[in-house]
Amino acid sequence: MNNNDAKKHSLQAAFEQVAQQQQTLISAIFPSADSEVIDEFDPRGMAIYRNNLLATAQQALAISFPTVLTLIGEGLFNYASRELLISSPPKHGDWALWGDDFPSLLTNLAQLSDYPFVADIAQVDRLRQQSMRAKNSVIEQASLQLLATHDIDEIYIELTTSQFGLNSNYPVIEFWLSHQQRVVSDTAEELNQKFIQQSLDKLVQGDFSQKVLIYRPYYNAEIRELSASEYAWLTLIKQGVSIGKALDIMTNNNELEHDFDFAQWIGIALEQNLINHLKV
Amino acid sequence: MSLQRPNEKLKSDVLIGVGLRHQHFTEALTTPSNIDFVEVHSENFFAQGGATQSVLAQASEKYAISLHSTAMGLGSAQGVPSQYLQKLKQLASTCNPILMSDHACFSWSQLNGQQVHAGDLLPLAYSEQTLMVLAHNIDRVQQSLGRSLLVENLSAYIQYSHACMPETEFLVRLAELTGCKLLVDLNNIIVTANNINAAQPLDYAQQWLAEIPTTMVGEIHLAGFTEVKEGELIIDDHSQAVSSQGWQLYRSALERFGKIPTLVEWDNNLPSWHTLVAEADKARMIAEQVFGDNHSSKVTTAMTGLESEFIHE
User: The domain that contains B195 carries what CATH number?
Assistant: First the structure.
């Protein structure tokens, strides 16, 4: 073995040995489903690391899922945070990216079996966070000229990456709105009650479903309801179908109400920062 | 690494900065402050867009920026993921930081066969093997960033039985191996001294500093911690003003290491922006006393009440 090989071998051995030590410590810090922990260290020190992990996890999820926290309360929220640490430990080095699996964890939480809409509220919170971290974009105004120079069958729309769609069986917009009043006051309470009443009115409708758009006009992510036709339109555009072709498909779809007006939509889309640019 | 920025943002010989946290964004950007740089936690600005990017752009118009990472996990045998490094590199290219730093710790590992990030600064065993791992990772990061890093000493709450060298020897050898400089966190030394029951924590800390070569330090961190009952471990929670021991140690550090950029960290139980800046003013005043230059002083806060704290040590 020459000098270089020996060095490489020694480095590899060092990595393996240290990896083993570090895995042992990590296993002792992370909460475990079977509560089996290996404890070689000062228990006071280990308690600090364990508490710190739980506290940071709860804090991170509270930032990403503020509405869920308000909805289910701190006790259950903290319990769910610990469960998420067990089932989906963080892997990015950026707590803001942790929590993709939180909505599905909430779906399966026995304590929430009577409140199935909470998981969809979690999706709204998650998508709003994603939207607010997405790349900034401003419409390329010049590309709008294509509408004057080309046939719409040849024109495609590149949507902004800060928008997300969601389909729910619950009136998530009204539920979500009813938990956004951070200041307790009679007016806020009145507003909350109004949204809750709207939610309940919608829930009694048979086969209820709601299509939701999360979008970001500037820095704050907004939320609004999509009609079935606009939802279908955005789906086609995201799939890379040209404007003309998408309009044809929608006209021929008998399941859609023919209430989609492209000229009107362009105005709204510009106002709400839905379009990045047009292209041929 | 150059600390020279050709503009008027740097206000004194000893650069004095504060940690910029979310709650202070508006005031930091709109209030005149006598500080030279602000330190931000890199990972808080990893998003591709949004308001934080705008804040960072505005902050870098007003202050020099120090990028302090808390999640690189430089001592991880798992390595530092390329994706993380890419984000850090991208961030550095947008804000042109005067300093870049992280800790002598590990964060990445495996849990049940999957990559995991500990979400914390976990302590390293001061052994030959760990030194090789840490040096190898730092070398890779420095190559990737095209600049040297500052590596910070940690507050550790556990001790490894198989550690075979003191923390200072470990850090000095690391700096020699990699060309990195040290970010000496004075509060961390005091916290560790207390947690290992050093008879005289301040003496322990002074000795710690004496074991570091004078040319090896690139930045100093100042912070405070919550007092605990006897028998409990102190947590490095950055929740208080700098302790009187911290200020005494800062004077010693400047006397030993020279005009080193200094940062006041305050992360929990945040005070007003004004109070935080006043802590930075205290640091500037000590620097002026140590180096005998007051031409850089732009301290505007009432100092009368503070003087006794510095002079009668």
Answer: 3.20.20.150
